[in-house]
Amino acid sequence: MNVDIKCPLCLTKNETVSHLFFECQFASNIWNKMLRWQGISRHAFRWQEELEWMVRNCKGKFASSHINRIAITGCIYHVWKERNPRLFQGKSTSVECIVRTVIQEIFYLGSLKSKIKLENL
After folding, report:
1. Which of these, 44, 53, 38, 49, lies nearest to 23 by C-alpha position?
2. How many other C-beta atoms are found inside a 10 Å radius of the C-beta of residue 70?
């Protein structure tokens, strides 16, 4: 059985964790659009550098830390979610659609958190 090790998102490089989630042009476009939306002026790094950035910038109960955590987990989830239909069904979603979905989830989860706080008063 032959297994294709090429990244199903860009079809150019071998699929590794670092490539799939950060170095792949498709994933990198998602990260860069999310960073821009958050007002963060930098480009996506490789896996190890991103982990270090996450540790530094996702601590605490600040709203920005909470948004960073949701954005990061949302991007990773949706890149993985995009990978599987491309690989197994030949279906794809645009970068813009994925970014819009992650932003909607940030607003939705933020509104839930606000409602929970109000109910606990």
Report:
1. 44
2. 20
Tens digit of pLDDT for each residue in 16-68? 998 999 899 999 999 999 989 988 887 777 778 877 877 777 777 777 778 88
Task: Please name which of 23, 44, 112 lies closest in space to residue 12, comparing C-alpha atoms.
Answer: 23
Q: Specify whether the backbone of 92 is left (phi greater than 0), alpha (psi in -120 to 50) or beta.
A: beta
24 φ, ψ (degrees, to nearest 5): -55, 140
| pTM for the full predicted model | 0.81
So where are the chain's domains? 17-119
Q: Could you tell me if 68 and 76 are in contact, meaning their C-beta atoms sit under 8 angstroms apart?
A: no
CA distance 119 to 78: 31
Contact 19, 7 (CB under 8 A): yes
C-alpha dist (Å) from residue 62 to 40, 53, 58, 67, 87: 16, 16, 9, 9, 38
